[in-house]
Specification:
mainly alpha; globular
Amino acid sequence: MDSATSLLESAHDAMARHDWRAALDSFAASDASHPLQPDELEAMSEAAFWSGLAARALECRQRAFTGYLDADRQPEAAEAAVAMCRLHFGQHDTAAAWGWLGRARRLLDDLPECAGHGELAWLEGQLMLLLNSYDQALERSHAVQAIAN
């Protein structure tokens, strides 16, 4: 087994134990020797987020988004865009968050219903709650339920 594979195994083992910092360190070491695939970048983003490193989480997720687009994996790119929106809202960067929300919507418009549609509807519902638009929030929660069924 090569060192990059060993590092990725270590990263996934650490993720399973919720040892976010160890996971992040292993992902970073693997990425330094062999650029990570988008799925691995998403996991690295999660590890960075739970390690309290929001900027690193954003950077990893954006790389994942770009990787998915480059690989013509639109559903996964849309889900990464939704995650970018959530991360930016968490950082109170509403301009960037709205931009990523629009990007996710545009990607999902051309796709058959998938998990990304559910994630987008859930996020929109949360945003409607924050804006005190309760009827719209309820409508989005029904959309999430319909997509899940």
